Amino acid sequence: MAGEPVNINEFEELARQALPKMYYDFFAGGAEDQYTLKENTEAFRRITIRPRMLVDVSRIDMSTVILGNKTSAPIIVAPTSSHQLAHFEGEVATARGAAACNVIMGLAFTSTCTVEEVASSCNAVRFLQTFAFKRDIIELVVRKAESSGFRAIILTADTPRLGKKEADIKNKMIAPRLGNFEGLISTEVVSDKSSTVEAYTAETLDPSFCWKDIAWLKSVTKLPILIKGILTSEDAIKAIEAGVAGIIVSNHGARQLDYTPATISVLEEVVNAVQGKVPVLLDGGIRRGTDIFKALALGAKAVLIGRPVIYGLAAKGESGVKQVIEMLKNELEQTMALAGCCNVNDITRSHVKTEKESFLSRM
Fold first, then answer.
1. Which of 133, 254, 306, 309 lies in disulfide reach of 78, CB 3.0 to 4.6 Å?
2. Rounded CA gap, 189 and 267, in Å?
3. Which domain holds residue 266?
4. Number of domains in the chain
5. Is 129 annotated as belonging to a binding site?
6. What is the spatial distance between Cα 48 and Cα 308, in angstroms, rounded to a whole number?
7. Where does glyoxylate bind (predicted)?
């Protein structure tokens, strides 16, 4: 590719060129037919922006506050696994890039760098993610989060077992060393299953974990808990009843259950069910600043970006992470100015028209 990348899609192409096919497929791929993977991005294109003219936009303020933590923009680095497959510095490079942009980072417990390595790499606001692991592992997550200065726990709720990613099966994807698990389970999984990733999760996940267990999780940590993986109003209400501090609308980047809806298409349903009781965040499909604007207009407090950060990391390491985040921040600022919004609170539901609304207006 000639010249510097000017958008996220060009960063993805750089990552594809830089990575072995097995690793690119691992990061970029989705479950089964990859219907939801395509829909996560395509659904944004069916939402249009309704800008306001002749507004004083000489100063644009993108900053916001998430669970009491001020951040330069409504962008959080999503907790994603195995960053050392993308770049040898792994999550440490990602953390430094996020910190340089003054945005919150979500760190996956299935990281290749340890929690302590990331925490000591730079000063920043970070949340630590956990799956519905067996209880002794979750307790370890909590202890590490609290002792390392993390500000919240993200509980990923959509993974009682691993989704079927056919590219990983064909590639016989090998799970990398995950430092946080050393001493807990075998970090050299030997299995006759189709990929060692599948065997690894089978050793750690607790498929019996359910809503009542959130009370137990709250009893072992003082940190606020965000629940990630909510796609329906029914589960949003259950999350509120369970006492979570926030909800992340997510389909796991389309890596778990295929034919779930695009997250942006169900965001408003969840927001309406929550009725402002806790912040709602959106994960999945963000590739442009206009996407962030649309999510905020539909009620999200912030968005999480996963693959774009990985693509930046694979292409250029820490500087690539920073470039990707700054690119999205700059695009959001541009969108806000052209739409007549001086700060994130100015972005309202009336600033967008959904596909359903466009259809009804033609009837």
1. 306
2. 38
3. 8-361
4. 1
5. yes
6. 22
7. 252, 255
